[in-house]
């Protein structure tokens, strides 16, 4: 992803590696936050942090990743959280 961002001179996308419990950005920074294989170990704490850095009215996209478990529907916790 970083190579594509650089090759296409994209300036409005940031790739962050690390843990979701402490995202190194101020509150209300991003219009869209997309995570891949991140949420699930401490759902409530992770969602609070992802929501914190997402602007009001922003979008959160969580891609659950390839962990060998085929999901038939969204997780109840995700649906309950909106």
Short account of what is shown:
The protein has helices at residues 2-7, 43-53, 76-81; strands spanning 30-36, 54-63.
Please characterize this protein's 3D structure.
With 82 residues, the chain is α+β, with helices and mostly antiparallel strands. It has one domain (16-81). Helices cover 28% and strands 21% of the residues. The protein has a two-stranded parallel sheet. It is globular.
Q: Topology, pairings included?
A:
Layout: H1 2-7, E1 30-36, H2 43-53, E2 54-63, H3 76-81
Which strands sit side by side, in order, in the main sheet?
A: 1-2
Shape type: globular
Give the biggest sheet.
2 strands, parallel
Give average pLDDT, whole number. 84
Supply Rg: 14 Å
Number of domains: 1
Distance between the termini: 28 Å
Low-confidence stretches: none
Number of strands: 2
Tally of DSSP helical segments: 3
How much β-strand is present in the residues? 15-25%
Report the helical percentage. Answer: 25-40%
> Which structural class do the helices and strands define?
alpha+beta
Along the chain, the helix and strand elements come as: HEHEH
Keywords:
82 residues; alpha+beta; two-stranded parallel ribbon; 2 strands; 28% helix; globular
């Amino acid at each position: 992803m970083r190579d594509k961002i650089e090759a296409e001179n994209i300036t409005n996308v940031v790739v962050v590696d690390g843990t979701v419990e402490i995202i190194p950005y101020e509150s209300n920074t991003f219009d869209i936050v997309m995570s891949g294989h991140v949420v699930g170990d401490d759902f409530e704490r992770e969602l609070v942090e992802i929501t914190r850095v997402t602007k009001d009215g922003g979008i959160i996209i969580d891609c659950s990743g390839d962990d060998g478990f085929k999901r038939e529907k969204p997780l109840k916790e995700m649906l309950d959280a909106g």
